[in-house]
Specification:
Layout lengths: L13 H7 L4 H15 L7 H8 L4 H28 L2 H20 L4 H14 L3 H12 L5 H29 L1 H22 L15 H4 L2 H17 L5 H10 L3 H27 L3 H17 L7 H18 L2 H9 L5 H29 L1 H28 L1
């Protein structure tokens, strides 16, 4: 075969080619934009500190502001899913990122409680608009066989960026909270610009009977899967709500000790996820997801017995292993269940489960922790095991689709 017609060899070494090769350039543009955005994600993790220390709000007022943010986030992804199917994935993602930058800065310069509440609600409404559009883009751009690997790599990039962003955010917060808002806003604009220039619009023509979210809610398999993932989200969200409280107030670890142990989560994901995503993608998705959910459940249940930093690190390693297994599978299942022209709506309903869990997790976890660590962590583990069983029961229906 002549050199003019021979296939150009990949510049990647064989090991990296098997992990990173075979995915379209537009996917890597989306991945790169996501990484940049996560590197700049600094405001939300430090919002409570900002509201109480920089703006001088009472704990009650800060809690009200966080609740308003949560109310906005509940609407965010279902609304964005409809927009992604109607006006396009690229326009929804880029527009959502630009709106996030605007309201991020608005919050940073708000001084009165009414202005803070209005900015928090608006920020909650737009901050996750990109997610359904991003999930739909991956499904549109990547073949079904490669989707678990693609979603796994996206999950990896999010964790890589978030780990670095959290570290940098803590340092910048000492220089002044305004830095956090500007860095976060600039990263949102960079994500929007990269997607607009490098990612094509992939939205299929909608059928006349496509309708709104009702068509998704009539899909019993998708509703069942969303409930399963709500269980998973309720388990995972305890890492952000009750786990810090339980470890510092009940077990007696310092915030530094807790932070060091939690860093293991990000480190393990960054190291392990790209190594196993391709292999996991070749397994049956329902059984693989059920396995991951069960491993997470065991890890959280064992948190009952934690009395030291080393014990906490051991349980984190267990539930992180389950998180790695589930990382790229859920998005691939949603893409399988959704008709092409409804992928935004399906992703929006799926994302709603996570937004709802963010609101419910502290409401459930707080009273349980009052009863004792065993009540909280055995209940959390039980929810995770119920989700794993539900996933196994849904398996035949998902395989038929």
């Amino acid at each position: 075969m002549s050199s003019s017609t021979a296939e150009k060899p990949s510049p990647l070494p064989p090991f990296l080619r098997s992990k990173l090769g075979g995915l379209p350039r537009a996917f890597w543009a989306l991945w790169g934009g996501t990484l940049v955005n996560r590197l700049g994600t600094m405001v939300v993790p430090f919002t409570g500190v900002y509201l109480t220390q920089s703006r001088g709000l009472s704990l009650t007022a800060a809690g009200l502001a966080m609740g308003v943010f949560g109310a906005g986030s509940l609407l965010s992804q279902p609304l964005a899913g409809v927009l992604a199917d109607r006006i396009g994935r690229r326009a929804t993602l880029s527009g959502g990122m630009l709106a996030t930058a605007v309201f991020m800065l608005a919050l940073g310069y708000s001084t009165s409680l009414p202005a803070i509440l209005a900015s928090m609600f608006a920020l909650g409404l737009v901050i996750d608009v990109y997610r359904p559009a991003s999930n739909a883009l991956v499904a549109d751009l990547v073949s079904p066989a490669e989707r678990p690997r693609a979603y796994g790599l996206l999950f990896w990039g999010i964790n890589l960026g978030y780990s670095v962003g959290m570290t940098a955010g803590g340092w910048l917060a000492e220089l002044g909270f305004t830095w956090l808002f500007w860095v976060d806003a600039v990263s949102c604009v960079a994500f929007a610009a990269l997607v607009w220039r490098a990612v094509p619009e992939t939205r299929p023509e909608a059928r006349p009977e496509s309708g709104g979210l009702g068509i998704v809610l009539r899909d019993r398999v998708m509703v069942g899967f969303t409930l399963v993932m709500l269980g998973n989200a309720l388990v995972y969200m305890q890492t952000m709500s009750m786990l810090p409280v339980a470890m510092t107030k009940v077990v007696g670890l310092s915030t530094r000790e807790f932070g060091v142990a939690m860093a293991l989560n990000g480190v393990l994901i960054v190291i392990v996820q790209p190594l196993v995503s391709g292999w996991l993608g070749r397994r049956d998705p329902a059984r693989t997801l059920a396995l991951g959910l069960a491993v997470m459940a065991v890890g959280f249940a064992l948190t009952t017995y934690v009395t030291s930093t080393l014990g906490l690190a051991a349980t984190i390693a267990i539930w992180t292993a389950g998180e790695v297994v589930t990382g790229g599978i859920a998005g691939a299942v949603v893409a399988t269940l959704a008709p092409a022209e409804l992928r935004g709506r399906y992703s929006g309903v799926f994302g709603f489960a996570w937004s709802l869990a963010a609101v419910l997790a502290p409401l459930i976890g707080g009273p349980l922790l009052e009863l004792g660590p065993g009540a909280l962590w055995f209940t959390t583990g039980g929810i995770g095991l119920a989700a794993a069983i539900g996933m196994l029961l849904l398996g035949p229906a998902i395989r038929r689709r």
